[in-house]
Structure formats: C-alpha cells, structure tokens
Amino acid sequence: MATLPNPLPSLATSGLDLPPGxxxxxxxxxxWHEPLLxxxxxxxxxxxxxxLRAAGRPLGLLxxxxxxxxxxxxxxEWDLAPARTSYAGDHDAxxxxxxxxxxxxxxxxxxxxxxxxxxxxxxxxxxxxxPDELAAEVARQLAASEIPGARPALVPARRSAxxxxxxxxxxPVNQENDVARLCAVLRSWEDRFDIRVVALGFDTLTVSVGxxxxxxxxxxxLADEHFAFCPDTIQQSPPYDLDGYAEKVLLNQGAWWxxxx
Length: 261
Known about the structure:
The structure is a single chain. By secondary structure, the chain is an alpha+beta fold. Helix content is about 35%, strand content about 15%. It is built from 8 helices and 9 strands. The chain has a 7-stranded mixed β-sheet with strand order 1-4-6-5-7-8-9. The chain has a two-stranded antiparallel sheet with strand order 2-3. A hairpin with a 2-residue loop joins strand 7 and strand 8. Helix 2 (about 95-110) crosses helix 5 (about 180-195), helix 2 (about 95-110) crosses helix 6 and helix 6 crosses helix 8 (about 240-250). The radius of gyration is 18 Å and the shape is globular. The relative contact order is 0.17. The model has no long low-confidence stretch (mean pLDDT about 95).
C-alpha cells in the first residue's frame, strides 16, 4: 500500500491555527526519519478535538487526545516503534482475534478449549448522531472531566482506526508487538460499530462508539471480541467476567476503554 505524503514536516506553513506544540520523532530505535505526530504543549479547550478534525482532515491529519497519565508520560517516552509496525490492511480482523482467543481463552477464562465463537453481528440499530460528532462529544467529555490533562494531537492517518499504527504505538506490546494487527480489528469495529479512536495513553486506548450493541445477545457476542482484543481490560477490571462486562460496559454504551498491563 503506497503511503501518502506526511504533512507534519510542513505543519508550520499549513495554515492551521495551532497552539504551541511538539513534533515527535522519538522512537525506541532512535529518531524516526519524519515526525510521527504533533501534540500540544498544554491541555487544550475541551472542544479542541472537533476543531482539529475539521481543520486537519483535509490535510490528511486526524485528531486524538494524548493522555500523559498520572506519571506524565508523553509520547517521547512511549517507546514508539514504527519500524516494527506493518499495514493494518494486510491483516484480517477475525484471524487476529481468533489467534488471540486461542492463546488466552483457556488460561484466562477457563474456557476448556472452547473454539473461537466468531465475529459478533453488526448492531441492528444505530444512533441518529453522526459518528464524528459523537466522537467530538466523547472527546469533550474526556478532556473536561476524566482526563483533564489530555493534550490535543494530530496524526497522519487515512482513517481513525489506523491512528495507533500510524505512530507505531506500543501500548499493547505485552500482548502484540505489531499494533497494526490490532488496528485491523479497530477497522472492523469502525465498519460495524462506527468507532473512532479518541484518546491514547502510554498503554490505554479510548474509542467512541456510534453504533453500540442494543441487545443482550449483541453485547455478549462483542464481549468475546473485546476479550480477545484486550484480555487485561476484562480480567483486571470490574466486573471481571464476560457476561457482566457485556451488560455493564458494552450494552448501549457510547465509548469503550482498553488497558494493557
């Protein structure tokens, strides 16, 4: 897949009205040959995400909130690894999830060799709200309350699901060292659930959900996908089981949060 020109090196002459910020080329292997992302030097207005999307998208830049967490770990300290990141379109989402299910389900769920149940259905109903507008609202809420120190960022990416791969994000490295494989799953969720990548931390990922599951059966099927995608989120956070997770975390919920140990 041919890559598009990276607009970040010419950001200063792009015409975008941006606050003071930093271009990041720091990786685990040394400086990268071009910037991987730009992020603001200070937290932005909670509505900044929406403005960045409108201004950046025509240039090939998509917004994401950067969460430094309690330790103040910003992208220069994230061990970004673009050199070991492939292309999300080269991977099949179901193959990736099946592989993770077969690796983790027996030990973590005591599933007794239960076969991979397959991808869940696309929800039968969707919200009337545009997925990008919903993503902007989720970003506003995150910046206003849950992660008030978050800083707005721009990433060169074709689609929101590719943002982690575009920067060589290594948050899930203890599970998978090529984040593009997980981005293949995010692409599938983007197609089926209208998700948008809204926030990234050192090892956390938040997405908005424009078409969440609206029935118990849809939510339970999706819970299997979430377990394969990120076992730590379910095994190390309440309610600790797939049935409870489906009911309390997925059913009719407009955002999903993932954390890798």
